[in-house]
Amino acid sequence: MDKKVADSPGLGKIHLTSTLLLMTEEQKRRRGAVEMGPTALTVAANVRRIRDKVRGWSTYDLAGRLTKAGRPIAPSAISKIERGERQVTVDDLAALAVVLGVSPSALLLPFTDGPDKPVGVTGVGEVPALAAWEWADGRTPLKYEPGRHPEDQWMEYELHGRPAWLRPLRPGGDPYSGEQVAAYREEGKTRGSFSWDETGRPVWKYPPQEKADG
Fold first, then answer.
1. pTM, rounded to two decimals
2. Contact, 51 vs 75, CB < 8 A?
3. Confidence category of residue 75, pLDDT binned at 50, 70, 90
4. Which of 103, 112, 106 has the alpha carbon at shortest distance from 192?
């Protein structure tokens, strides 16, 4: 504090108040910059895992490839991403997935050793891993709205979430038959299954089928 301010108690109080306000705003900004939800933390872990363990690249290797792809991210920024200290924008996410050779969902969701393991997804909390992957792969809503028919919500999910030519088991734009729906959902039984509770959240239902001996 300079002499002029020190000699004026009123000015000193104003100066001190302004300094504290600036510090408070700076602290808020810093907290907001690094505050990560479960999905952001998952992205950080997956970028680190795929870069290092799968590709065997340094942060400089990845930075160089991102620059060639038209989305430069400095090696120091990649390190911050992997430590959960830097948010990943949607453009960063797309470029990272392309350069690392994986789908966006491979960065957004945790790799678990079983389909029944709980994983954190921003907006819904912990859900079975299979439910999260089915949602990310465009197969089913992650959460259903209580009080509405689940089949209607499932149809809306596909209608608004995927182009018509990507919707499975809908030849020529014809409606799904009961048999088609059953066959489509039967595919999940080899990995286990889940259902939704009364609040619309996915919960684990059946364990994966054990492989027969021999």
1. 0.70
2. no
3. very high
4. 112
For the stretch 42-69, what's the b/e string if a residue is b when 16 or more beta carbons lie within 10 angstroms of its beta carbon? bbbebbbbbbeeebebebeebbebbeee
Q: Long-range pairs for 188-191 at CB < 8 Å and ≥24 separation?
A: 188/130, 188/134, 191/115, 191/130
Distance from C-alpha of 59 to C-alpha of 54, rounded to nearest angstrom: 13
- What is the phi/psi pair of residue 64, to 5°? -65, -40
Q: How many helices (H) and strands (E) does the chain have?
A: 10, 4
Q: What are the DSSP E strand ranges found in the chain?
A: 118-121, 125-128, 193-196, 202-206
What contacts 46, CB < 8 A, 6 or more positions away?
106, 107, 108, 110, 111
Q: What is the dihedral of CA 11, 14, 19, 24, to 10 degrees?
A: 170
Q: Give tens-digit pLDDT for 121-172.
A: 999 999 999 999 989 988 889 999 998 888 888 888 888 888 876 665 544 4
User: What number of other Cβ atoms are within 10 A of residue 183's Cβ?
Assistant: 13
How far, in Å, CA of 15 to CA of 153, rounded? 58
What is the per-residue pLDDT across 5-44, written as a single tens digit (0 to 9) for each? 445 555 555 555 555 556 555 554 555 456 899 999 999 9
